[in-house]
Amino acid sequence: MSYTCCYHKLFLCWCLMFCFALPFPVKSDELHLLLNLKTALSKSTTHVLDSWGAANSVCSFYGITCNDGGFVKEIELSDQKLTGVLPLDSICQLPSLQKLSLGFNSLYGPISEDLNNCLKLEYLDLGNNLFDGSFPDISSLIQLKSLHLNNSGFSGVFPWKMLENMTNLTALSLGDNPLDRSLFPNQILKLKKLNWLYLANCSIEGKIPPAIGGLAELVNLELEYNHLSGEIPVEISNLRKLWQLELYNNNLTGKLPVGLRNLTKLENFDASTNNLEGDISEVGYLNNLVSLHLFKNRFSGEVPSQLGESESW
Ligand SMILES: *[C@@H]1O[C@H](CO)[C@@H](O)[C@H](O)[C@H]1NC(C)=O
Ligand SMILES: *[C@@H]1O[C@H](CO)[C@@H](O)[C@H](O)[C@H]1NC(C)=O
Ligand SMILES: *[C@@H]1O[C@H](CO)[C@@H](O)[C@H](O)[C@H]1NC(C)=O
Ligand SMILES: *[C@@H]1O[C@H](CO)[C@@H](O)[C@H](O)[C@H]1NC(C)=O
Ligand SMILES: *[C@@H]1O[C@H](CO)[C@@H](O)[C@H](O)[C@H]1NC(C)=O
Ligand SMILES: *[C@@H]1O[C@H](CO)[C@@H](O)[C@H](O)[C@H]1NC(C)=O
Q1: Residue 169: which residues within 8 A CB-CB, separation 6 or more?
Q2: Is 168 touching ligand 2 by the criterion CB < 6 Å?
Q3: Which residues of the chain have pLDDT under 70?
Q4: Distance, CA 251 to ligand 5 centroid (Å)?
Q5: Homologous superfamily of 37-180 in CATH?
C-alpha cells in the first residue's frame, strides 16, 4: 500500500521538475522558425522578407499577425513572388498558427505530412503554385474553414477521405489539378456548411450525386471540365442560394431538371458542351441571369422569349 503511495509522490515530484518545464512553446523559438522559412524562400525575387530579421519583433514582420499573447497567428504572403520549398516541419511548430496564406506564388516541391502538425489551422491557401507530387492526407486539420489547393500541380490519388471530419469547411477549391480519375467524393456531401465548391478540371467521373442537394449553403458550384455523365439531379433545385452553376465540358445527358426555376438567385449558368436534350423553357424563369451558356448540346424547341440577346445557347 505504502509503496504505491510513495511512487505517486515520487512521480509528482519528478513531474513538478520536468513535465511542466518542457512542452510550453517559447516566443524566441518563433523567431528561429520564421527565419527557417525566410531561408527556404531566399531565392524569391522580392523584398517583402527584408523586415524578417533578429533585430525586429516577430510580430512586426511583414505578413505576420500575432495573437494577444504575442504568438504568430497568421502568415499572409499570397501573391508575393515567393519561390522555394516550404519547410512545413518548421512552420507547423508555430503553436498558434490559424492562417497560412501562400496562394499565387511559385512555391514548388512536395507538400509533406508535417502539415498535420498545424493543428489550429482554419485557413489554408496553397493554391496557384507549382508544387508536385500527391497531396498528403491532412485528416488532423479538422478546424479548417477554408482550403484552397486549386491549380497547384497536385497529381495522383487525392486523399478524399481526409475531408470527412472537416465539418466546418465553408470553402473548398481543389480544381485544376491533374489528379487521378475518381468518382464524385462522397465525403464532400457531409460538409453542410460549404458555400464554395470548386471541383472543376480535376478528373471527376461518374454521376453528380443527388445528395448534392443537401449542401444548402452553396453559392458557387463548379464542376466544369470533368468526365461527369448521367443526368443533372433534380435535387440541384434545392440549392436556393446558388449564384453560379458551372457544368460545362462534361458528358451530361437528359433534360434540364424541372425546378431549376426555383434557383432565383442564379446569375451565371453554363451547361454548354454536354449531351443535354429537351427544351430549355425552365431557364426562362431565371430572372436574375446575367450569363447563360447552353451551346453544344442537343436541345430542341423554342428559346424562351424572356432571354436577352447576350446569352448564348
Ligand atoms: C483558387 O485559389 C485561390 C487562392 O489560391 C482562390 O482565391 C480562388 O478563389 C480559387 N478559385 C476558385 C474558383 O475557387
Ligand atoms: C466548428 O465551429 C464551431 C463554431 O465556431 C466550433 O464550436 C467547433 O469547435 C468547430 N469544430 C471543429 C472541429 O473545429
Ligand atoms: C473521423 O472521425 C472519426 C471519429 O472520431 C474517426 O473514427 C475517423 O477515423 C476520422 N476520419 C479520418 C479520415 O480521420
Ligand atoms: C486544367 O488543369 C490543368 C492543370 O492540371 C491546366 O494546365 C489546364 O489549363 C486546365 N484547363 C482549363 C481549361 O482550365
Ligand atoms: C458520353 O455519353 C454517351 C451516352 O452515355 C456515350 O455514348 C459517349 O461515349 C460518352 N462520351 C464520352 C466522350 O465519354
Ligand atoms: C419550387 O419551389 C416551390 C415553392 O417553394 C415549391 O412548391 C416547388 O415544389 C419547387 N419545385 C421543385 C421542382 O422543386
Answers
A1: 144, 145, 146, 147, 163, 191, 193, 194
A2: yes
A3: 1-26, 28, 308-313
A4: 6
A5: Ribonuclease Inhibitor (3.80.10.10)
